[in-house]
Amino acid sequence: MATxxxxxxxxxxxxxxxxxxxxxxQRTERPVAFYVKExxxxxxxxxxxxxxxxxxxxAIREGRVRTYTLDEIRTELSL
Length: 79
Prior knowledge:
The protein is an all-alpha fold. Helices cover 65% and strands 0% of the residues. The protein contains three helices and no strands. It has helices spanning 15-28, 32-61, 70-76. Helix 1 (15-28) crosses helix 2 (32-61). The longest helix is centred in the middle third of the chain and has 30 residues, at 32-61. The radius of gyration is 22 Å and the shape is elongated.
């Protein structure tokens, strides 16, 4: 059931994916929206993490983040 804080999102998906969603919804007697929300909730953390890694990697490549050599780390840790 929608609450006042729910939002509507319109998205285009391949027909084959829509057919799979419809079939799953029909077999389980749940609305397609239930599975779309489930999929988003399960994958959003992975997507956020991947984006953060890409952002950090780009910052390192551009020299905006201080990096350390293995020798510097060994010296700092007295290894």
